[in-house]
Amino acid sequence: MSDMARKPVCPPTIELYAWLDGELEHGRFATLDRHVLDCSSCRDLVRRMRITHRAIFAVRDPGDGNPEFENQFVDGIMD
After folding, report:
1. How many angstroms from the chain centroid is the CA of residue 50?
2. How confident is the model at residue 46 (pLDDT cuts 50, 70, 90)?
3. CA gap 47, 1 in Å, rounded
4. If we measure between CA atoms, which residue out of 75, 15, 8, 73 comes closest to residue 46?
């Protein structure tokens, strides 16, 4: 076995979104908080997610309040 440190397993993107939105239980939130601090890949992903989130909410709702539009929009971002 190698002496090199193993890279931690990164959480799924959807869980990072929940972390950003404060939707996780305290223990899981703290675990992801530590992971994001230690993982440059996840830090970069979270930075891009925040930029996207701000851009989405900076624009008026083009779906005129249509929840289906929002679902399709978010699905498109996740792909």
Report:
1. 8
2. very high
3. 34
4. 15
